[in-house]
What does this fold into?
Amino acid sequence: MSDFREDIVIHAPAEEVFRFVSSVANIPRYVPFLREVRLESGDHVVAFAEPAKMQRELNGFFRVSPSTYRIDWGTDGVPPYRGFMHLRDAEDGRRTVLTAQLTFEHRDDPAIRDALRQCVQAIKRLVEEEGGGKVMGGGAG
It folds into this structure.
């Protein structure tokens, strides 16, 4: 298994950033290969991916922990993968430190590292430029 991790500072309070990233409807805004993600029941989600070569339906989980500003997601598919995002307020309370990590069975893969970096940069851009609370609603739904 290989872990891929990115940290980024976002100029917005953690509560605002968390409200944005914890909304399943917002995921396609910062994960470019997903065209739609739906919360089915409980923490079960269905995501519809559109890679250039094929369309796929992915089943997995998306668990939101508001008290700790943490989101866990993953799938038991082949190959299985897991990920998490954790946010914390910077010392000034006006910035957020966002940590995102993916765990795959792949060896170190620059494409996965680049994709994760692009996702966290997209979150930063969307929240800072458009305001996370204004971009789309909050919460797991």
In short: Residues 43 and 90 are 29 Å apart (CA to CA). Residues 110-130 form the longest helix (21 residues).
